[in-house]
Amino acid sequence: SATTSSNLGQTSTKWEKSFGTDWNNSPTPPALIGNYIYTGTNGYVYKLNKDTRAQEGKSDYLGGSFGYSMM
């Protein structure tokens, strides 16, 4: 299994994804399930490929803002 480095110099950001600049666009904490990251923002849940960040799915509009809720 993979190990997590305890040395900050050995880590890096693999990719990042912006959902906008307004505070309403702040995504929920991500849920990692298999090869996908699920996060909600601005009334939608997004399915992102964890390796490429490609958006592979988006829910129907669920309404409102998720704020700081958990998935």
Report on this model:
This protein starts with 30 loop residues before the first strand and ends in a 13-residue tail after the last strand. Strands 1-2-3-4 form a four-stranded antiparallel sheet, with no helix packed on it. Strand 1 and strand 2 form a beta hairpin. The protein has no helices and four strands. The protein is mainly beta and 71 residues long. It is globular. Helix content is 0%, strand content 27%.
Summarize the entry for a quick read.
The chain is mainly beta. Helices cover 0% and strands 27% of the residues. Strand 2 (36-41) and strand 3 form a beta hairpin.
Low-pLDDT parts are none
Give the overall average pLDDT: 83
Helix content: under 10%
Helix and strand run: EEEE
Alpha carbon gyration radius: 14 Å
CA-to-CA gap between the ends? Answer: 26 Å
Give the helix tally: 0
Number of E-state strands = 4
- Major sheet details: 4 strands, antiparallel
Spatial shape? globular
- Class derived from helix and strand content: mainly beta
Q: How big a fraction of the residues is strand?
A: 25-35%
Strand order of the largest sheet: 1-2-3-4
